[in-house]
Amino acid sequence: MTALTPAPGADDRGDPLSVTRAAVVMLDDRTWVIGWSPQAEQLLGYQAKEVLGQPISALSVQAGVTSADWLGSQPDHGSPGHMVLRHRSGCPLRAATSLCRLPEAAGTAYLLLLADAEEHAEWQLRQAVLHGLAAESPIALTIYGPDLRVAWANAAARKELPGEFTQYLGLSEGDLHPGSQVLSAGGPSSVTQLMREVLLTGQSVVDLPYRGRTLADPDREHVRSLTYYRLQDAAGRTLGVCEESVDVTDMYRARHRLTLLNKAAARIGSTLDLGRTAQEFAAIVVPEIADFIAVDLLGAVLDGREPDARSVARTGDMRRVFHRSVREDLPEVIVPPGGAVGYTQGSPQWRCLASGEPVLDAVLATSSPWLVEDDVRSSRMRELGIHSHMVVPLRARDVTMGVATLMRWRSPEPFTPDDLLIVEELAARAAVCIDNARRFTRERHSALMLQRSLLPHEPPAYAAVEAAYRYLPADTEAGVGGDWFDVLPLACGRVGLVVGDVVGHGLRAAATMGRLRTAVHTLADLDLPPDELLAHLDDLVQRLAEEAETAHPYGAEGVVGATCLYGVYDSVTRRVTFASAGHPPPALAHRNKPVEFCDIPTGPPLGVGGLPFESVELDIPDDCVLALYTDGLITASSTDPDIGLARLSFTLAHPDRPLEEITSTLERILLPDHPPDDVAFLVARPRPLPVDSVASWRLAFAPEAARRARALTGERLAQWRLEDLTFSAELIVSELVTNAIRHGRGPVSLRLIRTENRLICAVSDGSSTSPHMRRAKVVEEGGRGLFLVAQFAARWGTRHTTEGKIIWAELLAPTAETDAFPS
User: Is the pTM here over 0.85, yes or no?
Assistant: First the structure.
């Protein structure tokens, strides 16, 4: 018998055990080989002449196996089996077999088909995969032909298509999923366009997000992940495009919720402003979750107070903070921002506020009792078609501060429990930020009250100087810092100018600043020279540092330090005396020459101790401006102090401008929006007294000097047209001169100083002993002089000098409102 030849045009991608591909061996009834195909020769290596007429059992690797044994071990009727044969090279070969009995007409014979077992197993696996994709896979597969029309779909894809599948053959993707849209930014305008590109280029598209409704579930929006690749036959001809579709709606919504939470964490609470926080919360919710949201808070929360149980039980205490809608005309709004909301008892808002639990009306019934009682809201909801309603509490730290009301009318889907969960999480985050803002509001009010009590309320107005100032704390949220300034009235037409800087920012620095400012006021009232005043202030700072270190031995709170610049301007002598404790020098702006920085010995900062302070006296020309400032002014725009001083000189040019204009220019040019350090600066224009407003006399050290002092005073007051003060002034001068002659030393001098609204009487002598006012007994003839002075003068005091002392008293000059001085 000749060797068998295969049929022409065999498909090499079919079953390896098919007649067209397998190695064919024909056996007689004894299982001897009577036919041997070229594929059998290729598979086992034997030529036909070597095996023809031999039993097939001779090819088995098992010794002693008869043909009958071998035949009994093989499945019949074409079922696949396995056997191990010996290759001509001697190596064993595991082969897949299929034994078929030929028809009776051909005689008793068998047809044995052989194939490589591994190749056959691989083919069976591919067949199982194809079957799984077609019948068992949850991934929907749809094949579109070259015309991009539906040609085939697996079982998963057919589940999304109601009815018989044959009715969808020949339809396009747009016909199967009308209204769907691609979610990826910058993607194709339609899936049909995308498939056309895949068909032409062969470039696959993986995981394209796609949102729309299916024909099997038209009431619910689904999100699918689509993958497209081109199909080709063995010859490379294009057969169409395969679409893999996976429903990722739940995963997409979970990821969307996570994105919202991340967005909320980044956006909600960017400031400590209640209204801004409510606005940020609403911007996250609308339009991502709801079509409308209203944020309502209790009045106590808006005022920075702690809500009590009674306010929580009354929705009438709630006010609208913010609302947001998908429509700009806000058709849902009934209450404007800031207005009382007035929810009825039994309403979802009332129940939510009372219980602290959310209320979800997935399907809102307009016949609900609370809507029946609220005609305005009921008619508005029916008019807009609001069908789903949700109210969540704004609760933090076991305190319910308000509620958020969410509604849907444009989106057809009702609120779900998943929506409630995400809104609760967002509301919880917003509530913490709102509570922080409430607490901050309360603390800010306290801090601002402290600031107002620590610093001058209005620019001081004194005859000796005209002043303007600015104060900008680095802690802009708290509104307080450690820098300060002051203009202090002193005796005899003089004024004290002070600027200081406490180390640090915030309330602690502000409290320290308040103590130092009070100390400066007290020491200035004693009329101490600038260097002595700073020495006393240095002792105080050392005591404060010791107290702070004892209270906080290991913390930064224990650090206390400050710098200070103190000067006294005398409008009579037109000179100023400065002393500095580690502070930048003052600037003196001239009208006709460049700005100069006064050469003042810089002492150690306050709190160092052990080193003296020095004073320096300077002449102040007319039409000049003095600028006292803290280092924050010259380092705000540049870390180099020289650059800051140069810019300060430029800004102070032309001192003839109004002081408010100068301070505004300093703030605009030298300071950024948020200064890194506290800044305080004081701009003062000295007002020297005219020569004819001061009168001075040297008096004899004798009892008759009092009579001469009265006469000189009366004559000068007549020249100044202050006759209404003659009696009071003569009495005060007489008592002060008499006291100097009886208890002091010579020489004795009298000075009268007239300002805009005051008359100052000053008597000097060579003694440093300070007088004391006492209450004289009835039987005593003397001891009532200072008592009378105190009764007639607006204020009086003693000022020590290097030559002795000066006792002074001030009288208020009569005005149009008061034609006589009150005694």
Answer: no
